[in-house]
Amino acid sequence: MVKKYIEGESKEARKLRKAREKALQELVDVDQELGLIDAHPHNPLVKSQNYILCIKHGTKYSADYVNILYNMVARHCTLDYTFVCLTDDSTNLNPNILTLPLPTGLSGWWCKPYMYSADLPLNGTVLYMDLDVVISNNIDKLFNWNINKWCTIRDFTRVMRPTWEKYNSSVIRFKTGELDFVWKDFINNSAKIQAKYHGDQDHLYAVTQSYPALTYPDNWIKSWKWEIRKSKQISRGERGFRKLTTIENVQPSSECSICVFHGDPNPEHCEDPWVKENWK
Question: Is the dihedral of CA 100, 101, 107, 110 positive or negative?
């Protein structure tokens, strides 16, 4: 800990000041837990925290997906954190989840840029996860790795093109306010951006070229259907409900913390035994 000295301050005065600062911080901690002080990040009394954040918008994913993600994090994270969901409908969510409203006019993956806004009433480090993931092992390292960088993962196109460097936005870690410029760029040019880019991760990659992410090691976060299973074959049918054509008794390695279910199938439609055992 760095000691703070004030020029001309006596040793006794310094002891009194430190005791006062300690007592004040203890009161602030209690008041923050009880919700008695404004939790806005610009309040200098609010202590920095770790957050697990997800987004639920519309009806694509039910409240079960949020609650199951909450359960998986509880099993696989030993750090102190607050679980946050940005949503337009908090019905049936676990009451221990902090819910924050999404702005109107956003939909699908274009809700994601809002999580970078400096106006969110959060202060600290955010670890964002999509709802269609299955946590497989401890995720503490996703908070603790290269803490002075913002991080995401290489898109799973890497399976076909090993040198692929563009992002996949299923898992992202950043400091609150750090990527506010991404949100501002989107909200100021939303129509143009949505027409130009296939999704939020392509926009994120383009707008952060002068402030690039550090990508997590590939073996920490993997595609379930492309990197863990052998067969990638999907059945025909309505998008969002298609299943894998075979059942495989496979599981991720101990280095893999998160399995991502991009596209189809969603975890609830996967019959692989390991997924059924761990997505709960």
Answer: negative
Structure tokens given for 57: 């918008």
Whole-angstrom distance, CA of residue 36 vs CA of residue 29: 10
Q: Output b/e per residue, 37-52; b: 16+ Cβ within 10 A.
A: eeeebeeeebeebbbb
Tens of pLDDT, residues 52-104: 999 999 999 999 999 999 999 999 999 999 999 999 999 999 999 999 999 98
Tell me what pLDDT residue 240 has. Answer: 78
Dihedral of CA 138/141/143/144: which sign? positive
Q: How far apart are CA 57 and CA 86, in angstroms?
A: 8
Q: Is 174 helix (H, G, I), strand (E, B) or coil?
A: strand
Q: Give the pLDDT of residue 122.
A: 93
Bridge partners (DSSP) of residue 82 are 51
Q: Helix 200-207 and helix 180-188: axis angle, to 10°?
A: 110
Using CA atoms, how far residue 96 sits from 31, 75, 78, in Å, is 18, 15, 17
- Residue 96's nearest CA partner among 52, 143, 62, 55 is 52
Q: Which residues contact 164 (CB under 8 A, 6 or more apart)?
A: 154, 155, 157, 158
The pair of three-digit structure tokens given for residue 73, joined into one six-digit string: 């994090």
Which residues in the chain land under pLDDT 70? 1-9, 13-47
pLDDT digits (tens, 9 = 90+) for 178-187: 999 999 999 9
Handedness of CA 274, 276, 277, 279 (dihedral sign): positive
